[in-house]
Amino acid sequence: MQVPETLRYSEEHEWVLVADGVATIGITDHAQEELGDIVFVELPAIGAVLTKSATLGVVESVKAVSDVYAPVGGAVAAVNERLAGNPEIINEDPYGEGWMVKVTLADATEIERLMTAAQYRDFVAQEKA
Amino acid sequence: MSESSTTGTLARTPLYDEHRALGARIVEFGGWEMPVSYRGIMEEHKAVRTAAGLFDVSHMGEIEVLGPHAAATCQRLTTNDVRKLANGHVQYTLLCREDGGVVDDVTLYRVNDQRYVFCVNAGNIAKDLAWIQEHAGEATIVDRSQATALIALQGPAARGILAPLTPLPLDRLKSFRFARSEVAGLPALVSRTGYTGEDGFELFVDAPRAVALWTALLAAGRDAGLEPIGLGARDTLRLEAALPLYGHELDESTSPLAAGLGRWVKLDGEDFIGRGALLHEQERGAPRKLVGLALRGPGIARQGYPITCEGAQVGVVTSGTHSPTLGSAVALAYVAAALAASGAALAVEIRGRAVPVEVIPTPFYRRPRPAAAAAPAAPESTEGGPEQSAAEANPAVAAPAAEPELDDEVPAPPSDASVELVEEVPAGEPPAPAHLEPSTAPAPEEGES
């Protein structure tokens, strides 16, 4: 399970990367492993305003449907259009090409309430136990 | 099923440790801890379609009906015609309630005229056993589920993998036939059946021998591309083949006629439990029909999603997935009979969004077969009529792994190979010349029936 040090993490297994007030959001390596082969991704409309913990989108594997929650609030600035035709990118590169949305942060301090890489590793270990 | 060494409330098959060692993801399924996947559902699915897969389905149940009254009891319990079963033949059939609702869909094995075996769904073992005992009449009922493991070997390479391991002449073991023999030196009942839409075998073995059989098969098949397959791909495989799954397409409030299983309901034959209700339904026409759907918009239809027509609900999805073979989303759904074949604009409601769907023929996937496999017999539908569902219009639908003509065949004469094969053969005394070439999968691309 990869957990890059530079990212922040939610308890619902999303990751967040902040740069210049814009948060890039995706699901973690652990999440994609748990889901298995991803075959469909539903993303919000650009301009949609998400509150923290609102449903940001849906990821479907062959077997199951999973909601993805907004780990931070803000307006949707961009969505990863490639996922519509190639949802398996999330399996292949969850922290890179498999990003899902970019959100203009409403409250930058929300980032501080997310887990660090070390905290997330512990969190996953506890969930498994 | 088999050795239900329970931990907490969940049962395990004798192969549980093998699954763990192979790195399987284990999930709870119907009270069992079962492997859902090993290397990924898509990859496993592809392995079965292109090479072969090995499935632990030991959670399924085996219930024997014994004695001089066995045939009569089986006939009373099931919708199909038990008289058509010869020794060594298997029949897909249904246990129905008096009101026609499905208690379970099962396969029925005739070992001899005083010994029949039901192979039943794991989640229904206790219910089926009680139902069968309640209607046993003078037959003796024995639950062999605990003592029996079941391993399925499926895919175009299955025959080539199995042939060198068994003295059975597999070219004489036709679809929906079985025989007692040995596999890898272990006594086993070899059945040419399955639940994937591919050629293949189901191997019944005493539970303590399951690990030895499993490991021998995996080793023997490695070079041919054999992979262990979890319940995830088992589901996508059976759904592509449009084989019903109890709890999805079938339950106690569902009639086999609505499910498109009329071919396995012999209303003009002997009496059976539920016949009256089903005759009545046949006269009136089933109010809803099971159909195959292709999604014409983004998303995946899942069990329980509404089917709508001009905004009004007209049906419900029973199973849906992303079809790994087709690369698109398909589903089975019950819809109002009048709309099933009407060409009406239907949609599936996915999280509040209406996604257009098209009724398409099932199965969604049909394996390539040699031309010699011949055209199936015309469907002897007991329903007919223009409202016939796409599923029923298509003879290959829903025959669990079936060559659809098989269970309708005239029983083979006593000289039939499978009859001699099924006689109990003492271990170490192969019944027949093992003259099969080690690996000749049926030639693909030759067109299908």
Question: In a nutshell, what does this entry contain?
Answer:
Chain A is an alpha+beta fold and 129 residues long.
Describe the structure.
The complex is a heterodimer of chains A (129) and B (449). With 129 residues, chain A is an alpha+beta fold. Chain A has a single domain (8-110), classed as RNA polymerase II/Efflux pump adaptor protein, barrel-sandwich hybrid domain (OB fold (Dihydrolipoamide Acetyltransferase, E2P), Beta Barrel). Helices cover 21% and strands 34% of the residues of chain A. In chain A, a hairpin with a 4-residue loop joins β1 (8-9) and β2. Chain A is globular, with a radius of gyration of 13 Å. In chain B, a hairpin with a 2-residue loop joins β15 (306-309) and β16 (312-323). In chain B, 55% of the residues are buried. Chain B is built from eleven helices and 19 strands. Chains A and B meet through β4 and β6 of A and α2 and α7 of B.
Distance between the termini of chain A: 16 Å
Number of strands of chain B: 19
Please tell me the total number of domains of chain B.
Answer: 3
CATH superfamily of the largest domain in chain B: Probable tRNA modification gtpase trme, domain 1
Q: Largest sheet of chain B, described in full?
A: 6 strands, mixed
Main sheet characteristics of chain A:
6 strands, antiparallel
For this structure, the CATH topology of chain A is OB fold (Dihydrolipoamide Acetyltransferase, E2P)
Provide the CATH architecture of chain A: Beta Barrel
The CATH architecture assignment of the largest domain in chain B turns out to be 2-Layer Sandwich
Provide mean pLDDT of chain B, rounded. Answer: 85
How would you name the CATH homologous superfamily of chain A?
Answer: RNA polymerase II/Efflux pump adaptor protein, barrel-sandwich hybrid domain
Number of helices of chain A: 4
